[in-house]
Specification:
107 residues, alpha+beta, two-stranded parallel sheet, 3 helices, 4 strands, disordered N terminus
């Protein structure tokens, strides 16, 4: 008999996947930021050993600043498609968060 087991989070971890109760992805982000505050959200270690970490609060605030810049300075409107070209370092998820918060469609 074959059964389909539901994927389980790693030992001690919780699942932070969006659910039907999240009308928009930004609702999901807001919930995660509020729940995790100053806990580390992202860490990047470069080949030269330089490292940096952003907390959920810092990621939220930086994403808000990028969203404001995209909307106010660049005059992008919700629904506009934007391309994000950046290496896999801390600015990339910040820019992605800002684009989503601004209602843009990142590609």
């Amino acid at each position: 008999v074959l059964t389909h087991a539901q994927p389980q989070p790693a030992h001690g971890a919780t699942s932070d996947a969006p659910t039907a109760s999240h009308a928009r992805i930004t609702d999901f982000y807001r919930e995660i930021y509020a729940r995790n505050g100053d806990a580390p959200a992202l860490t990047c270690v470069l080949p030269n050993g330089t490292a940096g970490t952003l907390s959920y609060r810092e990621l939220n605030e930086a994403g808000d600043a990028v969203a404001c810049w995209l909307r106010e300075e660049l005059r992008l409107a919700p629904g506009d498609v934007v391309a994000i070209q950046a290496p896999n370092i801390l600015p990339f998820p910040v820019i992605m968060q800002g684009a989503v918060k601004a209602g843009l469609v990142p590609t």
